[in-house]
């Protein structure tokens, strides 16, 4: 986190957050004060850190398979897959 001169608000460098990936859980980033600017902070502990955790929100989706219950041996048949949530990506 960097503090500009004459500012009490600090900013951090942006970091990329994972996209929707069903195989990755949440991820964490550690932030700390890297530049206190021209401020004269009393008792600023720039060695302290904070952890930001981005929680992955996995959407559970059900797929239902259906077909005609009767089929003659040796003939073709169709199985339909219905997705229970909108398909994205």
TrEMBL record:
Ranges of residues in domain LapA adhesin: 1-57
A Pfam cross-reference name: LapA
Domain of life of the native organism: Bacteria
The protein, known as: LapA adhesin domain-containing protein
Organism the protein comes from: Brenneria izbisi
């Amino acid at each position: 986190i960097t503090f500009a001169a004459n500012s009490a608000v600090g900013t951090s460098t942006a970091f990329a957050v994972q996209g929707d990936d069903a195989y990755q859980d949440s991820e964490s980033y550690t932030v700390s004060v890297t530049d206190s600017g021209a401020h004269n902070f009393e008792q600023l502990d720039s060695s302290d850190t904070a952890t930001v955790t981005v929680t992955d929100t996995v959407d559970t989706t059900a797929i239902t398979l259906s077909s005609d219950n009767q089929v003659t041996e040796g003939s073709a048949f169709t199985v339909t897959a219905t997705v229970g949530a909108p398909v994205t990506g």
